[in-house]
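Field reference: sequence -> structure
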Amino acid sequence: MQSLWKDEEAKQFKGDLGLRVYTSRLLGRDKSLVLHGGGNTSVKIREKNLFGEEETILYVKGSGWDLETIEPQGFSPVRLAHVLRLAELPSLSDPEMVNQLVTNMLKASAPAPSIETILHGLMPQKFVDHTHADAVLSVTNTKDGEKRIREIYGKRCVVIPYLIPGFDLAQFCAKAFRAQGTPDTIGMVLLNHGIFSFGDTARESYERMIELVTLAEKYLESKRAWSVAPNYFDAGTVDVNAQASLRRKLSDTAATPLILRTVTNERTLGFAQDPRAATITQRGPATPDHVIRTKRTPMLGTDLDRYVGEYNVYFGEHAPKAKDPKTMLDAAPRVVLDPGFGLAAAGRTAKDAAIVDEIYDHTIDVILRAEALGGFQALPAKDIFDVEYWDLEQAKLKKGGKPAAFAGEVTLVTGAASGIGKASVAAFLARGAAVVGVDLNARIESLHSRPDFLGLRCDVTDEAQVKSAIGRAVLAFGGIDMLILNAGMFPATRKIADLPTEEWRKSMSVNLDANLLLMRLCHPFLKLAPRGGRAVVIGSKNVPAPGPGASAYSASKAALNQLARVAALEWGADGIRINTLHPNAVFDTGLWTDEVLAQRAKQYGMTVEAYKTNNVLRTEVTSRDVAELAAEMCGPLFAKTTGAQVPVDGGNERVI
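Structure field:
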């Protein structure tokens, strides 16, 4: 492991807190050290308070912040004197400890301090770093892990048996540090948990962490337990319909929609196909910190009933009541291993599923290295259960608030690179859905860079491309719950007498045939939607009130409207509702080029500006107006509506 410290970069960060930010980010860059919110860092700084008195402030990473992207405001400033007084108490409940820490911060707007704040405060050094390094966990998670750790570090690290984070752990570490610490001690190992390093400067503490983890890596290498890879691999064939069915089972068990991210590659297939998988994967997580994200042991295969009855070792005597709504989400596994598809990671959101995937990817390394070292051995099931149902964790869940409207659900939007489609992507993302945007324009692929968006270049008139796009959508997120049929074309104004056959056919192909194809291919997935499938067709004012010169467009949209009405009749038994929006004169869409707009305005004897507000309300209709209503039609307000046709046109006299 190499230090990432660069003098030129470090110069951009001022003061002790600035350098604390810099080295925290360096730690966060390396996923073999910390993953998504894991680990924490701190620095003790002398400052003057409002009364001009000097006091030491402990700046410790705040709850909800990730080391890789942390800012100065991500550190909670806590009065060190109060922290040290708390440490002297004979006992202190974790909720009261959190209360005391929060009420002794300098800034009311700061995030809640880390649960390990007292532990950081008790360490005498100015800078303290804490990670869950894969290499260290690979050593500690073996039968003789403590012996091996002492062999690696000698007097350089104090070794602490596993205790749940909090007040008791802080006191135990302080006593152990006084008893075991020497002038050579630069760190501390918490068995089955992680490693600490200390220093008088940010660089010293950071590079000591790199040094200590490197020693663990070299030890594993010397035991031929570093470069490990699954020895078993047969190429799998992923059935997207089966993955959507699995996602539905998991969602039903959790009593809420879940995103399911399928990862099929040589690594995941090889691990799932390993003959030892049935035993080594069921021994627990690499560290209890991963429990909150991954929830229990991986499920082997896709038989959920068998998982709950056989593999889920945390049920049994420690089982929560099955009917308790608070624990229903916990009952669904977050990791599924199967020799056919490799690994599937489930989460309440696409971000959560991506985090589960990344955590388990590192867990594979830890398990295989520990196996090569003598056998992977995690904490006893009761300790894992205690972390998952820890009062602080349950309080955090209760405090989490109401989830977004479409959390755990997936929307497919066509024509998503511009206009109504682009606005629809934004509307559904804002409501918590994972969104797949397809468009012929390549810029769809870079429309958003976030885990809950997948942009795919696709010609919706090409069946092979559409099948591929739907398959990629299901592998990325687990299914399709909502379908926004928006892709379309508006040809140049032509009278019927002048309309070329090829132009007519192209309009029918894009505006009608492509939507039939999408509806047919998406139907099996909409049918599996945990909350019932929903589709919204972006129609046109030209359906109820066609205009001269737009025969190809008007006829194709009218046919699409009729297709949607038939779908509403046929799909109702499958719990799928389909409704149509009829926008008019939405001038910020790709259909309305300057040329087309000028032609239409001239045809009606108006200026372009007058034509834009040529409606009863004298208002301009935007893509966002249409997209927001499309999103609402997929929500609970329209739960009992299907086959509807709703205008979004500011009021059109001919329609009214």
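Note: The chain has a mean pLDDT of 89.
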